[in-house]
Amino acid sequence: MRRVGRGAGFRLVVGAALLGLLTAVAGCSGGSGGGSPGDSGDAGSPSGGGSPATAAPAGTASPGPGSGTLPQIPGQTFYVSDQTSAARQSAVLRGEGRTAEADALLRIAAQPSSRWLGDQAARGIADQVSRRAAEADRTPVFVVYNIPHRDCGLYSAGGASDAAAYRAWITGLAEALGDRRAWVVLEPDAIAHTLDGCGVKGDAAAERYGLLAFAVQELKKRPGVRVYLDAGNPGWTPDPSAVAEALRRSGIAAADGFAVNVSNFFTTDRNVTYGAQLSALLDGKHFVVDTSRNGNGPLNAEAWCNPPGRALGAPPTTETGRPGVDAYLWIKNPGESDGECGRGEPPAGEFWLPYALGLAKAGAGG
Fold first, then answer.
1. Range of the domain at 285
2. For residue range 344-366, what is the model confidence (pLDDT) as tens digits?
């Protein structure tokens, strides 16, 4: 995905509750592991893509579903999974005696992040993760990422084979969520790629808008589900009026709002300004901001693919203190590659330990 340079910075809240959480996590052990749209486990997210994350090393054990190795943060709305790539890798490092690195990764693993859904396994994953979250009295965040012609054939190419397949997939996903709570970020890049040079134009763009509107409608049949349509970022989609019109055509009126900065690095202030411009054009629709890697802001306007020197951003929360901003979310899973960018990086979606540690250790505020 050429659009998003996914980023955010992290301010570690050092209260007694979180210190207790990190201490509790320190004793866990297990394996590193998965995070692609088709993964059957409760694991990370692609960096906008469909490539599988790194498999667990031979001879290591992975914490199984419901193992409870990561407690939920007191007062947190969103679900902390013990099956993300960061959680599993932290357990592996601890088992190898690499305590300092394991502790650094807990700055990622102990925070709630999103589960990306992008293939036929999505229905089962959504059911499993939403049930586990409900048992913990928390709300999971999902990223629906299966639009036909996804990512214009770039790093995260893929998606449903056609419009009929997508409608059936969305319907199944909505049914899997049932009456359980969930927040859904709908189709990163899909709208922005109708407004750039991607080639999703004319009839293809009209079909895409119709599919997005259908997805909003189906998901909103579930009373516990909140839906946020992806609206790009201030560096990729600089014309708010064009984005607002595309959002209208994509069913924003029935959605809870829109998402900005998915997988990118723009500062929270800049995203809030951009989001407020869109909101003013959309009858005051609220929005969420991806703060997963924006702590140091962007390297530059064009550096979206694993740029160095970035940092975790503000932790996920609904207490943003900003009118119209429903939440800061870690939509991009910190530490998972944006793609093979020509510097030896792993494919999109694979967990990349050096990059994850760099994000965690930088730790600037968003």
1. 43-51+70-362
2. 899 988 999 999 999 999 964 44
Q: What is the DSSP string of 145-177?
A: ---TTBGGGSTT-B--SSHHHHHHHHHHHHHHH
Amino acid (1-letter code) at residue 364:
A
Q: Which residue has the tokens 């049930």?
A: 131
Distances in Å between the alpha carbon of 350 and those of 244, 353, 358? 33, 10, 16
Q: Find out whether 36 and 46 touch, Cβ atoms under 8 Å.
A: yes
The radius of gyration of the chain's CA atoms, rounded to the nearest angstrom, is: 18
Catalytic residue among 119, 151, 189, 326: 151
Distance of alpha carbon 123 from alpha carbon 156, whole angstroms: 20
How many structural domains comprise the chain? Answer: 1
Residue 251 near residue 291 (C-beta atoms within 8 A): no
Least Cα distance to 245 among 195, 318, 312, 204 occurs for: 195
Mean pLDDT, range 291-319, rounded to an integer: 94
Active-site residue flag, 203: no
Q: How many CB atoms are closer than 10 A to CB 128? A: 18
Residues 6+ apart with CB under 8 A from 58: none
Residue 265: inside a domain: yes
Q: Is residue 13 part of a domain?
A: no
Which parts of 207-344 are beta strand (E)? Answer: 225-230, 257-260, 286-290, 325-329
14 inside domain:
no
Cα(185)–Cα(143) distance, integer angstroms: 5
Q: For residues 111 and 70, give the distance between their C-alpha atoms in angstroms, rounded to a whole number.
A: 9
Could you report the per-residue pLDDT of 241-291, keeping only the tens digit for each? 999 999 999 999 999 999 999 999 999 999 999 999 999 999 999 999 999
Q: Is residue 5 assigned to a domain?
A: no
pLDDT value at position 44?
A: 34
Task: Quote the strand ranges of the chain, DSSP E.
Answer: 115-117, 141-144, 182-186, 225-230, 257-260, 286-290, 325-329
Please report how many Cα atoms fall inside a 13 Å half-sphere around the Cα of residue 47, on the Cβ side.
34
CATH of the domain at 175: 3.20.20.40
